[in-house]
Specification:
Largest sheet: 12 strands, antiparallel
Number of strands: 21
Mean pLDDT: 74
Order of helices and strands: EEEEEEEEEEEEEEEEEEEEE
Shape: elongated
CATH architecture: Beta Barrel
Number of helices: 0
């Protein structure tokens, strides 16, 4: 963005000046809900500690300041993964929001955990391990004005509630393009550029 300044005299001269951008620290408080869309799938065959790429599903705004726009890179960490069987019980895995890339830097964040527990060889369900966690498999597109509601091919799911997940034998999976909603368990501060 540029500002145009015109000096009026015998000859009109217009000078294009760059907008002044300043750095400002913004604190995003505990309890803020952040929804991300997975860019790669996560399964119980993956190893705990692995980091998976995601993007913000909507703008992250605090006190009227844009902290991170829609599409900003985010990272989800696999905390626990166990592939079940008839002998050792149900498959389960736990993930959390690990970080967000803000102003070129990865800002580490602490969120509630999201736990997925398999139910035998049938449909698997996602359950909350912390207040505010949610999942929605992207089967269609978001409806404008109705946050979190997903539609597609007659399948509906609400981000924040339980939903059916893909089942492959005794594994559970969060497919690519799954929406995950996390709630910050601690605040974080980031340097953002403000015009």
């Amino acid at each position: 963005m540029k500002k145009v300044v015109c000096l009026i005299g015998l000859v009109g001269i217009c000078i294009s000046l760059p907008a002044v951008v300043r750095a400002e620290q913004v604190t995003v408080p505990t309890g803020t809900q952040i929804t991300v869309c997975l860019e790669e799938g996560i399964e119980t065959k993956n190893k705990p500690g692995q980091i998976f790429a995601a993007v913000l599903e909507s703008n992250l705004v605090q006190d009227g300041i844009l902290v991170a726009p829609h599409g900003t890179k985010a990272y989800v960490k696999l905390l626990k993964a166990k592939r079940g069987s008839r002998l050792i019980g149900k498959s389960n895995m736990t993930v959390k929001l690990h970080g967000i890339r803000i102003n070129g830097n990865i800002v580490h964040v602490n969120s509630d955990n999201f736990e997925i527990v398999g139910k035998g060889r049938g449909a698997n369900t996602a359950t909350k391990a912390g207040v505010g966690a949610g999942v929605g498999s992207v089967a269609g597109s978001l409806l404008g004005g109705k946050k979190g509601r997903l539609v597609g091919a007659g399948i509906g799911a609400v981000v924040g509630g339980a939903t059916n997940l893909l089942s492959r034998g005794e594994t559970v999976e969060l497919p690519m393009e799954t929406l995950l909603e996390f709630t910050l368990s601690e605040s974080f501060t980031a340097d953002v550029s403000v015009i």
